[in-house]
Amino acid sequence: MDDVLYRKNKYVTKIPYFTYRDEVWQINTRHGGIYTKMLKAIIDQMLAMLSYDTKLFVCRFDLHQIHGTVDSSHLSTFIQALKARLTREYGFRHIGYAWCREKASAQAQHYHLALMLEGHKIRTTYRMAKLVLAEWIKAGGSSIHRCNYHNVTLQSESLMDAVLHLSYLAKVEGKSGIPSRYKAFSPSRLKARTQKRGCE
Question: Which residue intervals define the domain YagK/YfjJ C-terminal in the entry (predicted)?
């Protein structure tokens, strides 16, 4: 099929609908297409979070830095520090996330970060954005941009809307200049809860 390519051992789709886990998801393919492996990981982590809490809070931040770096080790340090800070501040038991690295020509790289949090404990990004910025500056970053957020439940259009929004992280555009030995994308690795809640 012409709309599905194979690049650098990653499948890319340019079709704006993607069938996965018995659902048809609308995705944003306007920026060179979508890496399907990345998209699947994002969906998997959202569904894993929804197995622990019936409400999911999904938000995205764009992370900027003045100077470029060869690898993304500072991003990994930032993620660990941010998870610890959010756990202290909100009492989260589980935190899902995905980040991607991108670079426009003649600029330092930037990152897109998606957070997937327990929706019964947070409803907006106002307070959390200050925590994200503080930890990002500690890690060597310079500024953040707070994007849209979603209050998600499993059987609702809100889940579809959140996947459409976060599919932007899996876009092809901006990732081609990253050496293959360095990560361009990394998700959390939460496993879905298998046991049922409550008594049968």
Answer: 51-142
Sheet of 55-64: strands edge to edge? 143-153, 55-64, 110-118, 96-102, 185-187
Report yes or no: 95 and 115 within 8 Å, Cβ to Cβ: yes
CA distance 15 to 29: 7
Q: Residue ranges per domain, the chain?
A: 4-187
Alpha helices in the chain (DSSP H): 36-50, 73-90, 126-138, 157-166
End-to-end CA distance of the chain: give it in Å, rounded: 47
Q: What is the pLDDT of residues 112-152, one digit of tens each?
A: 999 999 999 999 999 999 999 999 999 999 999 999 999 99
Q: Tell me how far apart the 2 most distant CA atoms of the chain are, in Å.
A: 59
Helix (H) or strand (E) holding 117: strand 110-118
3-state secondary structure at position 102: strand
Pairing of strands 55-64, 10-13: unpaired
Predicted model pTM:
0.91
Query: How many residues belong to the chain?
Result: 200
- Retrieve residue 173's tokens: 């555009």
Q: What topology is assigned to 4-187 in CATH?
A: Alpha-Beta Plaits (3.30.70)
Question: 3-state SS of the chain: helix, strand, coil percent to 5?
Answer: 30, 30, 40
Which phi and psi angles does 171 have, rounded to 5°? -70, 150
